[in-house]
Amino acid sequence: MRCRLCLQDKELLKNSHIIPEFMYWELFDEKHRMVRTQGLDISSAKRIQSGEKESNILCQQCDNEIIGKLEGYASRALFSGKGEDVKKIRTENQLHPDGILTSTFCKNVDYTKFKLFLLSMLWRASISKLDFFKEVELGPKEECLRRMIFQNMPLSQLDFPCFISSFIGHNRQMTSIIITSPRKIKNANGTRYIFQIGQFVLMYFVSKNDTPIWIQDAAITPENKMRIVHFDDKRSIEFMEAYFGSTIVQALQFVHGGTSPTQTNTKRTEFINSV
């Protein structure tokens, strides 16, 4: 069968992650379980113990030597901080006058590795036949992304820029239990995709005429700089109600409405057991 990345006829892997497992680490409970929902309906909630996997899309060489190396760098950059290639990364927090954290400015982030890592998730979601990723349809742009990833060619900052934000404060805990299917937003200006994975929200812009000016200050640049924008409690609730839907937000608010960490953990376990 033909590998979707190198386009060569090779033996293909039986289980290739669409989103790498390390992106889910904070979603799992003590029994390595998390909750997945499809769209805005809480009734679609399903208890799972690993991320979405698909058979027969990548050969071992592409999965390990191309995708795997991109994932390895991103894992070290986002979470562990270990490794000579990420030790030079520097961050500076930006605060609102009232003291609330608004963004984190990062420099010395490898533009090629990190951007192609982000795009590899979008590309894998697009080629996937899994129902969870059904809204991600790149059409002709799918081949452009394939070439970028395979040829290690990130192009310019405004070619498929990705904006990263994160939840902070109390509501960050609310997102540490659930993952929802990627959403497609299409209007007269173009198309963008939103992925929510734990504390992170990834927004991909796939139409150049849909790229707002401010993205130039946030998306990773060829100068190895990027900005992560943080949602405080008020903004995160607004986003979650639009993205998750009110029924899911209400369920998450119940789970994390405990008066103590013990009570919250108990509610979390009850919620996971109930789906």
Order of helices and strands: EEEEHEEHHEHEEEEEHHH
**Share of helix among residues?**
25-40%
User: Structural class of the helices, strands and pairings?
Assistant: alpha+beta
Total domain count: 1
Number of helices: 7
Instruction: Name the shape in a single word.
Output: globular
Strand content: 15-25%
What is the residue-averaged pLDDT? 82
Q: Which segments are poorly predicted (pLDDT under 50) over 5 or more consecutive residues?
A: none
Strand ordering within the main sheet:
5-6-12-7-11-10-9
Radius of gyration: 19 Å
Major sheet description = 7 strands, mixed
What's the number of extended β-strand segments?
A: 12
The end-to-end span amounts to: 37 Å
SSE map:
Blueprint (H helix, E strand, L loop, with lengths): L15 E2 L16 E4 L8 E3 L4 E2 L5 H21 L9 E6 L5 E7 L3 H17 L13 H10 L11 E6 L3 H4 L3 E3 L2 E5 L2 E8 L2 E6 L19 E7 L1 H11 L2 H10 L5 H14 L1
Parallel strand pairs: 2-8, 7-12
Antiparallel strand pairs: 1-4, 2-3, 5-6, 6-12, 7-11, 9-10, 10-11
Helix pairs in contact: 1-2, 2-3, 5-6
Describe this structure in words.
It is a single chain. With 275 residues, this protein is α+β, with helices and mostly antiparallel strands. It has one domain (16-274). Helices cover 32% and strands 21% of the residues. It has seven helices and twelve strands. The chain has a seven-stranded mixed beta sheet. A hairpin with a 2-residue loop joins strand 10 (190-197) and strand 11. Helix 5 (233-243) crosses helix 6.
